[in-house]
Amino acid sequence: MTPIDQTILDTVKGDCVPACIASVLEIPIEDVPNVCLLYEDSWGQHLNDFLRRYGIYMISLPVASCEEMAVPLLGYHLMGGPSIRGVKHCVVGKNGRMIHDPHPSRAGLLEIEYYDVFVTTNPSSRIYNAARLIWEEEDAS
């Protein structure tokens, strides 16, 4: 994860979501479409269309659902909720804790309303590749 800051700080047209996605994927923010601005009502589907090229998609989980099901949040994810600026905001989380706020204030969220978790589109290849790396490390020791 490479922290990338928002380039648009407007309370209506801000680009916190692209900044968070760019941070997690370690790509330039310019490469991530500002789907929240471009597709107000269907931005989630358009974001998943973009993420597909990276072999992942995103699922939004309300905090209450995560707590109710005792869902462990492992790895990187996004967290959303109200900011001190009175607007909805998005930050990067890891293992359930905020690790990067793309807004220059670094104020984070007043409360977490939802988690956006990344899911692989082909788990077998990801699992195989992760296992292969572990095996190679063990062989090298």
Provide structural commentary.
- It is a single chain.
- This protein has 141 residues and is α+β, with helices and mostly antiparallel strands.
- The protein has one domain.
- The protein has five helices and five strands.
- A hairpin with a 2-residue loop joins β3 (88-94) and β4 (97-100).
- The chain is globular, with a radius of gyration of 16 Å.
- The mean pLDDT is 85.
Task: Using brief descriptors, characterize the structure shown.
141 residues, five-stranded antiparallel β-sheet, 34% helix, 23% strand
SSE arrangement:
Elements: H1 16-25, H2 35-38, H3 43-51, E1 56-62, H4 63-69, E2 76-82, E3 88-94, E4 97-100, E5 114-120, H5 123-140
Antiparallel strand pairs: 1-5, 2-3, 2-5, 3-4
Query: What structural class do you assign from the helix and strand content?
Result: alpha+beta
Number of domains: 1
State the shape: globular
Helix content: 25-40%
Instruction: Give the biggest beta sheet.
Output: 5 strands, antiparallel
The quaternary organization reads as single chain
What percent of residues are in strands? 15-25%
Overall radius of gyration: 16 Å
- Terminal Cα span: 27 Å
Mean pLDDT: 85
Strand runs, count: 5
Order of helices and strands: HHHEHEEEEH
How would you summarize what this structure contains?
The protein contains 5 helices and 5 strands, in the order H-H-H-E-H-E-E-E-E-H.
